[in-house]
Design a protein that fits this description.
homodimer, 382 residues, mainly beta, Methylamine Dehydrogenase, Chain H, 4-stranded antiparallel sheet, globular
């Protein structure tokens, strides 16, 4: 069975879709195959792999965003590569190496601009989404992290070295930059809420986190959970959690705690802590099912073979299972009926029913990490 | 210029896309042309009409939902027609007349079932999304309104005659029905919040509204705003507002008031009233921009040439303009940078920048009403 599936994938690698075959793109997605610099094109409805696209360079810590028409993926590689992939023709449309060491990217709300944040040289570069021509170069003098899109053709990003957040408004001929100092010591990652209003940075150099209300005329840093953070230095941190894993579940955010075996619950209005749930290991992602009723959590090495599911009303773990070695990512279908899970060292993407927890299918993949469905094209901050 | 545009549309009507031409569907949409029983296929990125699809029967009060792959639209006509439209081949894939008088429909979270609510005979019929074969017939003995999808392969709908809401769980071989009496006198419409948790019915026969928490083990009717409603019977109601127009703006719902020149603001957690904003006329739709910062409102006849934009922080009207005669619907692009407006008696769809309010384009359309972008495929309750 395994060889049959692999054979089918191999055949698909070299065959673009038949001429004239219509392609609707709403239920497709890409899986990052980190070891080989390739992407696996997947079909949600068919629960199948359709094709492999190769030649994307170093994808060891990669992510991607989608064009508004769900045709093109912009893939951000750790090596500074920016690759535009056409999932209709199943080919690389264009590829540039735009910096020496990049950390992530975003696409503007109108789909016309793609921005990349870089460690080396530190800053943000903005490209035309159509041609990948450079539109704006914004040096920051710092490693630059937490780059997200915000409504109004804006990008928001943060400086590791000096703890400043910048808002770049790209609606005019030149970027208009607003600088917000005092975000804290060594912000290491950030997120924007799904309505584009609140931007939150995690801090490596001090306790707590920092939030910004982007609806304010002059956004000011708001210190959140000042008594909590990575300050308990006696706990080794195996992996810094991903803040994109923050999730709104009901009226609360769920946050993977740094260096602790727990997730934190925080009131979405005033950021006060509303509870903690003890977990199997150090959480990496805590992701709410799209309806917010359940939160799925995976864990850092060496406990990364396990997933726990937490009920957001009772805050209790209601299900635990071991998909296999190195569970790296979980992606829900847009209305939440299934979840697709990357199990890197099993070389599988596994698909589960989110109501019954039944495993529905396994798909072969080579060292899979991030899974990105096209529906992300329509979300702020993804 | 006008005749050129019409000429282009006429040509497209008879030409499917060229063989081998790829079609990504993420930025497409359909406009209901109510007078002629036709649909206009539109392209968000190109700000253009691509084709007209005809033969859909009576579309005088029609709506539609999208398949998860964003290829097929299921169109619910007032005449009981259920039409499956393929926007890739630009043709009707299948059409049935499933009842004498229908009021709307929904698609299950897994995309496999399409449900239609009917006045005559009263009830809900559920069809296979692929074949349109009847899967389940759920007679209710009442005009049936407010049909929505909910997570877990469920449909929720409400009986006008006896004020009951039913939850039909379609995950087993037969529908499992939960009946909730006491929803109030003559519910006329309903909505579900975007996380699928809260279902709210508007009442025609008494003051206030009724909410259900679908996360409760046994959902019980919650009476909302008991002192408010259509009770002030001296005000003529020109048109009952659409409850699908409810919008979450920040932490509040915005509700078009019935029979009054105002919108109501309601706390999203406990449903208490937080404010009212005086408006130009009786609101029909009050729709939040996807980021929730602005709410766009249109109005009932005879004041239906106007749109007002309300800031959700100050609750003040910040912009007012008159697109033209009979503004029937407004649809935002998924991340909110543009809004598309149907101006029925101008025979135009008008496109506006939501930040500057500048008009960007007009597209010819025949008596346009509802506008439905494919991104709705990925939302609960749309």
């Amino acid at each position: 069975m395994k060889s049959l599936v692999l054979g089918a994938i191999a055949a698909l690698m070299i065959s673009p879709p038949a001429q004239g075959e219509p392609t609707a793109t709403g239920d497709l997605g890409l899986v990052i195959e980190r070891a080989n610099g390739s992407l696996l094109l997947i079909d949600q409805s068919e629960r199948a792999a359709l094709a492999r696209i190769e030649g994307l360079g170093d994808l060891s810590h990669a992510s991607l965003v989608w064009s508004p028409d769900e045709r093109f993926a912009y893939v951000f590689g750790r090596d500074g590569g920016l690759t535009k992939v056409d999932i209709v023709t199943r080919q690389i449309a264009k590829r540039i190496v735009q910096a020496g060491n990049s950390i992530g990217g975003a696409i503007s709300d109108d789909g016309r601009l793609v921005a990349v944040s870089n460690y080396e040289p530190g800053g943000v570069r903005v490209f035309d989404a159509d041609t990948l021509d450079l539109v704006a170069d914004i040096p920051t003098g710092s490693k630059t992290i937490g780059l997200v899109d915000a409504p109004g053709n804006r990008f928001v990003f943060t400086m590791w070295d000096m703890g400043e957040t910048w808002i770049a408004d790209m609606s005019g001929p030149q970027p208009a930059i607003t600088k917000i100092p005092g975000m804290g010591i060594n912000p290491y990652d950030a997120l924007i809420t799904s309505n584009g209003r609140t931007y939150i940075t995690g801090l490596f150099g001090e306790d707590g986190m920092t939030a910004l209300d982007l609806w304010a005329d002059t956004p000011e840093p708001i210190h959140v959970l000042p008594g909590y953070g990575r300050g308990q230095k006696d706990m080794p941190v195996y992996k810094m959690p991903h803040l994109e894993g923050w999730a709104l579940a009901g009226d609360e955010f769920v946050l993977p705690a740094v260096g602790h075996h727990e997730v934190l619950w925080i009131d979405a209005r005033d950021f006060h802590e509303t509870g903690r749930t003890r977990t199997h290991g150090q959480p990496v992602f805590a992701i709410a099912r799209p309806d917010g009723r359940h939160v799925w959590v995976n864990f850092a090495h060496p406990l990364n073979d396990t997933i726990q599911v937490i009920d957001s009303v009772t805050k209790a773990v209601i299900h635990q299972f071991t998909p296999g070695p190195a569970v790296l990512h979980m992606e829900f279908t847009p209305r939440g009926h299934e979840v697709w899970v990357s199990v890197r060292d099993a070389n599988k993407v596994m698909i589960y029913d989110t109501q019954t927890f039944e495993k529905l299918r396994e798909i072969d993949a080579q060292s899979p990490s991030g899974i990105f469905f096209t529906a992300r094209a329509h979300r702020i901050g993804l």
